[in-house]
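FORM 7B: Structural annotation worksheet

SECTION A. Query
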Amino acid sequence: MSVATLEPSQTTELPVIDFVAPMPGFPDDKQFVLVQVQDSEVIFELTSKDHPDLRFVVVPPVALFPNYSPEIDDETLKSLGVSDPNNVVMLLVVTAGDSIANTTVNTAAPIVIDQSTKRGVQLVLNRSDLSVRERLSPAK
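SECTION B. Predicted structure
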């Protein structure tokens, strides 16, 4: 399945994403606001509506891993209310390190969002070739 390109909102209203299941480790947070980081085309912040101090830096996978394309199962698509797969976007959570060499991306649990329904979920994939701490650059 191809994944749509994330389109920044052209309005001043911030898109609220309703998660159909809480993100692992954050059972009380199911609504997040997704905003593009100023002066960046590929970096976004996902901020909890209920706990604004809870923020995740997220990026579309194509920005860092052009060949990344895990399958999204039918059950997940149904839970998001997907009617058109072209409206689905995928984001990866970034864990910032003290340098780019120590910054990692979670490729094992992408965030999947239907732009039409504004519903999302963090999809935990059971694949040995994916990592919760994929380095952006090789360790030295």
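SECTION C. Observations
The chain has one helix and eight strands. The beta strands are 16-19, 31-36, 44-48, 55-59, 88-95, 104-114, 119-122, 134-135.

SECTION D. Sign-off
Analyst initials: ____
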